């Protein structure tokens, strides 16, 4: 899948990034295994990580 995708989030000033839940991770993987999700890191700024990197037991129907 090719194309550009943007991400927008809004919330209170103390807004924190929440990692996608298991079913959402699977759905994102089904759309495109290389899709990236923005996740918090222990130190430093948030990172965009391929969703395949944080799925333990993925169901790949392809």
UniProtKB/TrEMBL annotation:
Protein name in the entry: Cytidine deaminase
GO molecular function, one term: catalytic activity
SUPFAM superfamilies named in the record: Cytidine deaminase-like
Domain of life: Bacteria
InterPro entries tied to this protein: Cytidine_deaminase-like
């Amino acid at each position: 899948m090719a194309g550009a995708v943007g991400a927008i989030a809004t919330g209170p000033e103390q807004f924190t990034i929440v990692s996608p839940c298991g079913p959402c991770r699977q759905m994102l993987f089904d759309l495109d295994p290389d899709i990236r999700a923005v996740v918090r890191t222990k130190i430093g700024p948030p990172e965009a990580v391929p969703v395949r990197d944080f799925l333990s037991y993925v169901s790949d129907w392809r």
